[in-house]
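Lesson 9: reading folded outputs for more than one chain in a single document. The general rule is that every protein is listed as its sequence immediately followed by its structure tokens, and records are never interleaved. Here is the first one.
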Amino acid sequence: MDCVARHAAILAAILTIAAVTAALPNVGPAPDASPVEGVRVRVSFAAAEVRATPSDSPARREFAGMPPLTLVAPDYVGAEKISSLPRKLVCGPAPSVATSSDFTYYSPWGNLALFYNGFGRANGLYILGRIESGKASLAAERRDFTARIEIVE
């Protein structure tokens, strides 16, 4: 193999590795999931209210600029209330496993999901925070409802 052919083969190998690496999910360090002190997300509907403590994550910071929002929230699979956001969020790495009481963003659909029953792992599920109060009211609401979402201190 002459010098030119060898360099071409090395270049082809480098480009292949670069393409494969770019296609892999970003598995960098997990974002800080600690709560944001003094800030809450309030979801008001009917005569009830849910309060969530936001986590300090890239997805939550992206979401923080959206409220106040008024959204329709149907029940989904007996585990969560979902609602489409006006625009998709640009999120960093670390999709998560949702549990009961998680306030999340599901990136493939561009929607919020408030879990009142556990769910599990889903690619593209980002934890925005943790529901602190009102989960029973959320679970009891079986019809579509209009919710107002605000950031409160």
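And here is the second record, again sequence then tokens.
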Amino acid sequence: MILKEYILVKNNNELPSLFEKSEYEIPLENVLDREQLCDCISNIYKLDISFVEYVFIIGINKQNKILGIIEAGKGNTFEVTNNIKEIFMFLLLIGADKFIHIHNHPQTEILECSKDDIQVIQTIKKSAELLGIELMDALIITDKDNIRYTDIC
């Protein structure tokens, strides 16, 4: 499967557009396979050895085909800011019907949600519902494991 990474840029009319930054061949057979998906994303972006937190958003269509991925936040060792406006610009521009939120916790084996993590996912979920876009999953990746927000939050 091909995974296309995008960044948001301004076009000639100063409006947001997508620019294809990179393209990756990934050994992912089913986007619903959480373990395989997390392994692919972790391997591409080296999340298992990263010193900083990242947020990635994967846009998906109704047939569960990945439309693309965007880095929606880069933080420091202990936190990352989700750029919610950028998340939904990306999802709308790519024509996503649903999406997966992926967030890493660097340098820790502890799989837990902070109050901020919980609040951000709740805000993203409510915003997505208003736009008719389904939040399929929200995942945390550490150097040892990965888990769904709904399993621990």
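What the second record shows: The mean pLDDT is 89.
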